[in-house]
Amino acid sequence: VQVVKLKVQGGYSPDLIQVVSGVPVRLEFDRQETGDCSSRLVMPDFKVNELLPAWETTSIEFTPEATGDFGFACGMNMMRGRMQVLDRELETVGAPAASG
Questions:
Q1: Which residues are CB-contacts of 100 (< 8 A; sequence separation ≥ 6)?
Q2: Torsion region of 48: left, alpha or beta (phi above 0 gives left; psi -120 to 50 gives alpha)
Q3: Which segments within the chain are labelled E, that is strand?
Q4: Please, which of 11, 34, 62, 79 could form a disulfide with 54 given CB 3.0 to 4.6 Å?
Q5: DSSP character for 97?
Q6: What pTM does this model have?
Q7: For 65-74, which contacts have Cβ atoms below 8 Å and span 24 or more sequence positions?
Q8: What confidence tens digit (pLDDT) does each residue in 39-58 have?
Q9: CB 40 within 8 A of CB 48
Q10: Which residues touch 82 (CB under 8 Å, ≥6 apart)?
Q11: Would the CA dihedral through 46, 5, 2, 18 be positive or negative?
Q12: Side-chain half-sphere of 78: how many Cα atoms within 13 Å?
């Protein structure tokens, strides 16, 4: 499982994350505020529409199958982030090729 921790406070930090396709992902959103804007997370490409309680960490799990750039935002679409899903085969770019 690929675990990515994000802080939610006036935005998402980090606001750009990278994961590998075909491997389960757990995004842990640590919401450090009470404003209405950040109370919901929406990731339409992954059918995520999740409440993020204030002062708590909320885990969202899914397995990205397609590669590309996918947006996520608050329920008001004012705070935004981006997730890049990379091809698993390209994950080891720069590593020596396995022989045999």
A1: none
A2: beta
A3: 2-8, 12-13, 16-20, 25-31, 40-43, 48-51, 57-62, 68-74, 80-86
A4: 34
A5: P
A6: 0.85
A7: 65/21, 65/22, 66/21, 67/21, 70/43, 70/45, 70/46, 71/43, 71/44, 71/45, 72/12, 72/41, 72/42, 72/43, 72/48, 73/41, 73/42, 74/37, 74/38, 74/39, 74/40, 74/41, 74/42
A8: 999 999 999 999 999 999 99
A9: no
A10: 15, 16, 17, 69, 70, 71, 72
A11: positive
A12: 11
Residue type, 2: Q
> Hey, which residues does 88 pair with through a beta bridge?
none
Band (84; pLDDT cuts 50, 70, 90): very high
Q: Which amino acid is at 33?
A: E
